[in-house]
Write a structure and sequence with these properties.
Layout: E1 2-6, E2 11-16, E3 21-26, H1 37-47, H2 55-63, E4 71-75, E5 86-89, E6 99-101, E7 107-112, E8 118-119, E9 124-129, E10 137-138, E11 144-145, E12 156-157, E13 161-163, E14 169-172, E15 176-181, E16 184-188, E17 190-193, E18 204-206, E19 209-212, E20 221-224, E21 228-230, E22 238-241
Parallel strand pairs: 12-16, 17-19, 18-20, 19-21, 20-22
Antiparallel strand pairs: 1-2, 2-3, 3-4, 5-9, 6-7, 8-15, 9-14, 10-11, 13-14, 15-16
């Protein structure tokens, strides 16, 4: 839809419904006189259009005597809407396990490199990027077009994390495992294996304590900075702890 403003002697100007674009058609004079550029500008100003006018277009229309053709001559500036706030985590969620591959391309199916997200004390584990308000635009009448601001998001801390000097950063208070539960950032001091340490769990290498309810099978390895508690048997496996 468009508003149509007709000047019988000189121009026909169409304005888009959102007032962001203007099209001009020069009407051929009945007496054979050429339309003057000054007259065209006068009619544009009379309508109230004052922003985004393309002078080169107006000059070309008048110099080349382009009659009876609608041409865009004014374009407003669209607003740039703001960006939503977002949280960047130290670790991204992985949908598939990633296994260790050696220099010869051999896959170690016992070692999943993305299974345990180890964090050390004092490490930044999450950061919030604030929303932005965006940038307002302007229509061809010079009226401001308000941008839509971005949406905010809650930045919640769970257990064993504190706010840094920058309140938009969360820092780990302990060595442990990173995890997000119900939107809250947590660092867990204990890694639990509900069954055996086998191909399902993979080798364990954890910055905190490890509790294993089942057995540690042949050829697997459990390494921890904290205590290691094993409820079942240890077969031909390697167990290393910096504690008990």
């Amino acid at each position: 839809k468009a508003l149509s403003i007709i000047k019988e002697l000189l121009t026909k100007i169409d304005i888009s419904e959102d007032k962001m674009e203007g099209r001009i058609e020069i009407i051929k004079p009945k007496r054979g006189n050429d339309v003057k550029k000054e007259s065209v500008y006068a009619e544009i100003a009379n309508i109230g259009i004052k922003y985004g006018i393309n002078d080169e277009i107006i000059n070309r229309i008048c110099n080349e005597k382009i009659y009876g053709e609608k041409i865009v001559f004014a374009v407003g500036e669209l607003p740039e809407n703001g960006e939503d706030a977002k949280i960047i985590y130290r670790f991204e969620e992985e949908s598939r396990p990633q296994f260790l591959i050696d220099d010869f391309g051999r896959v170690d199916f016992k070692t999943m490199i993305n299974k345990i997200k180890n964090v050390t004390r004092g490490e930044v584990v999450a950061e919030k990027l604030e929303k932005t308000n965006g940038k307002n635009g302007r229509n061809i009448f010079g009226e401001e077009v308000i941008a839509v601001p971005g949406k905010d998001i809650e930045f919640n801390k769970g257990i064993n994390v504190i706010e840094g000097m920058n309140e938009n950063q969360l820092i780990s208070m302990i060595d442990g495992r990173f995890g997000v539960i119900n939107g809250k950032v947590n660092i867990f001091p204990v890694f639990e294996v509900n069954g055996d340490v086998d191909l399902k769990s993979g080798n364990i290498n954890f910055a905190g304590a490890v509790t294993i309810k089942g057995n540690v099978r042949d050829g697997f390895k459990v390494v921890a900075k904290g205590d290691i508690i094993i409820g079942g048997l240890v077969e031909d496996a390697i167990i290393e702890s910096e504690s008990n």
